[in-house]
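#structure-requests
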Amino acid sequence: MPLCDGLKVVRSAIHGYGVIATRPFAAGDLLLQGEGVVYRDEDEFDDTYCLVFDGDVLQPPVDEQIFYDLTCQSRWINHSCEPNTQVDSGWDAKLAHPIAWWIATRPIEVGEELTYDYAFTAEVAEPCGCGAKTCRGLIVDQDEIPNLTPEQQTKLRR
């Protein structure tokens, strides 16, 4: 896996492994561009480290979700309910492939772990251990909270 300048994979206090900054980053800085493999719903694959896109990012667009399995350091960026990065995506016409990149949403200090909001759908929401003061208790998109089951609702922190 190619190494990304200013970033390092380490054991994480949040979960398993994580990515920390080895140099300071300013808000708005491009941190890294993720590399990966595209899968469709009918393919057999492990979606543990996948970004999920609507098929309209493909050229030509398709009417299904696609999965972008990260194969670089970006796969180790953990979730937080108070993230310091956001992931954006688009279509790279030259590569004929979707791309994803992470941008700092605020200054990031040396040694600080990079995080983003995984924003899972209600059907795949899982317990959150991010440790943020505003932790929702579940890794779930804010807009999906009304779709949570009654059991899932009991795990929310408000």
